[in-house]
Amino acid sequence: MISPIRLAALTVERPGGALHRVEDYFSGSFQAMANPCTVLVDTDDEAEAEELLGIAEAEARRVEQKFSRYLRGNVVDRINQSDGSPIDLDEETAQLINYAVTCHAMSDGMFDITSGVLRRVWTFDGGKRVPARDAIRKCLQHVGWHRVRWESPTLTLPRGMEIDFGGIGKEYAVDRAAALIGIRTRNSYVVNFGGDLFTSGIRRGDRTWGIGIDDPDRAGAAALYRLDVSRGGIATSGDARRFVRWRGKRLGHILNPKTGWPVDGAPRSVTVFGRSCMEAGTLSTLAYLQGAGARAYLDEQGVQFWIV
Predict the structure, then answer these.
(1) Which residues, in sequence order, are CB contacts of 184 under 8 Å at separation 6+?
(2) Distances, alpha carbon 192 to alpha carbons 56, 59, 308, in Å
(3) Per-residue pLDDT of the chain (308 residues; tens, 9 = 90+)
(4) Model's pTM, two decimal places?
């Protein structure tokens, strides 16, 4: 996770969260997508900060309501309950599917939005429970994008399979919220949803935003590095919060869709800086899926990154 450097703040309570005056900018917060969400705005105008926080919160909740795999009646649920019948998708959902297909091709099948069914047997709660190999093999019968028929905008998902946008949904929400905020202000801002974030540009006084990269052993409590960021997206993939312990190893929650097991030899965390949060999140995830080859993969991409 990545979190802004914490400073003393004056808090103003608001419905759904709080707005803080922190030195010379405002910081607003709320909960969405099972994560703490924060918006920083480099302004002295409290009303503007309040408006921009509301825009971000509304968009985060819209994306969550539409694309969360945990909610009934949304487009993901309708796809997963389609029972092998073709289903026509709206333009936004089709675009996300196309993006996931591109990621699948870029990763030689390691990024696969059908692998979410493996959560039926894996529970990454920090404990020591690992599923039986037979249970994993049964789940793998319902994993694999090659089994899906996709002729945009029509998707046919075989019976027993599911899709899950968890690998890109939060980053998508960040970029969407940031774009909407950018329409309403010329001031610099940060949109941070659960540690995946976008910064819009240089602050007043030609200053950057200070962003801390968390220590994976003390997530949310200690930063290993401080980055001075102007404009771009940052995202982290790793095992700081969701993992199990098995035979003396710490296994992260990102699974290899070909084996059904956590990625072997992966770093503790991979943080990438990109042009957008989606780009950063995609590259951090694809690098993590490379296991021990994460650093070499990112070197080839020519991006800034930090590996623990």
Answers:
(1) 51, 52, 55
(2) 10, 13, 21
(3) 343 333 333 444 454 568 999 989 999 999 999 999 999 999 999 999 999 999 999 999 999 999 999 999 999 999 999 999 999 999 999 999 999 999 999 999 999 999 999 989 988 888 888 999 999 999 999 999 999 999 999 999 999 999 999 999 999 999 999 999 999 999 999 999 999 999 999 999 999 999 888 777 766 666 777 889 999 999 999 887 788 888 888 888 899 999 999 998 889 899 999 999 999 999 999 999 999 999 999 999 999 999 98
(4) 0.91
